[in-house]
Every structure is written in C-alpha cells, then in structure tokens.
Amino acid sequence: MGQFLKPPRIEMASIQLPPVQTPVAITDQFIAQQTESLVLKERILSLSGDSFDVKLVTGEPIFRIKGKPLSISGRKSVFDMADNHLFDIVKERLHIHSTYVVQALDGSKLLEVKSSFSLIGSNATVIFTPSTTEGLVSLNMKGNWRSRKAAIVDAATGAVVAQIDRKRFNARQIFFHQQTYVVMVAPGVDLALITALCVCFDEKNND
Predict the structure, then answer these.
(1) Is 72 buried (19+), middle (13-18) or exposed (0-12) by CB count in 10 A?
(2) Angle made by CA atoms 14, 17, 20, in degrees to the nearest 5
(3) Most buried one in 129, 159, 183, 205, CB count within 10 A?
C-alpha cells in the first residue's frame, strides 16, 4: 500500500515546448514566459459540483475552479488566487456535437469548443478571438478517450501549444474517481486558456 502514497513523479515538467510565434491567449496576465506544467486536481466529494484546484508543477497555486451544483449547463467559474472571477465555462445545449463555451463576465463568448469525441478518440476544434491580436484563431485538440491524453495544436502553424495527460496519483484518488491532469503549456500561451480547455476535455470524457 505504501507505494501508492509516494509523491508523484511528473516527468513532463522537464520537457520543453518551442515558443509559439504569436501569443495564444484570452487573458493577458497569465501568458507563459517559459514551458510551464500545470496540475489540475479535482476536489474529492466537492459539494459544488466538479471543482478543481490548479497549481504550477512547483506547487504554487494559480487558479481555482468552482462548479455550480445542479446547473443544467454544468457551469464552472474560474478564479485567480486573488479571488478575481476571470470567466465561466458552460456546456451549450441543442447541438449535434458537444459544444462548450467560455463566457466573459458580461456573458459574451470568449471561445467555443466543438467536439467530435468518440470511444476510440477525441477531436475538438477551438475557435476564439485572441486578446493580443486581431482575427480568429483556431486550435485543434486531438486525444485518446481511454488514456485521457490530448495535444492542442495551432491549426494554422501546426505548433503544439499544450499537452494534456491524466495522472492517477494514489489509491485514494482511484477509489474516489478523482481526476488529476498534468498540462504542459508552451511559452507564449495563456495558462488560463489551456486550463479552460482541459476542463472541457474532462467534461466531455465524463459525459
């Protein structure tokens, strides 16, 4: 039993991703200056729906995600560590394919994630207007449903902007079906944006 309780070894933290040519962001204050690894850990037995704590791999907390109980849209609110409400993540109904949106506080749409997930693979298109440049940006999210891994790629340049990998850290998390993801983010990419995409990935895989 002791082997399950050892601190996790996160090998992704030593891997470096090439910087993107143009910043990929929906917020300006959380753009990675170097390759960063985030750890998204679902809270056990949360009373507020699916909620996550988000930390850098060094252990420094960066975001909190609060699920809204009994929400038809599965609304989740994302806060920074100063308790600033950054945006919400919701599932839109009445679509053939699962569709998630990130909403600003005024209700406007920051980005849309339209998926075509299946039991053998996961594919999604992410469309948004970046905070740093004009025009729309398109990302492709391709992954594996069974292992819950995904690569997020800039559709125009083919550059990998982030990689998502589910980890099971110990026996307690396995017992409670708690999800933990390690997310590697390239320099020049918004950590808040990638956190939102990881939550969408988790939501669809839990459907």
Answers:
(1) exposed
(2) 155
(3) 183
3-state secondary structure at position 21 = coil
207 pLDDT higher than 80: no
Whether the CB-CB separation of 167 and 149 falls below 8 Å is answered with: no
Q: Closest Cα partner for 179 from 190, 193, 187, 169?
A: 169
Q: In sequence order, what are the residues at sequence separation of 6 or more whose Cβ sits closer than 8 angstroms to the Cβ of residue 204?
A: 98, 100, 115, 117, 122, 124
Instruction: Work out the pLDDT band at 135, boundaries 50, 70, 90.
Output: confident
More confident residue, 57 or 49: 57
Q: Domain map of the chain by residue range?
A: 31-206
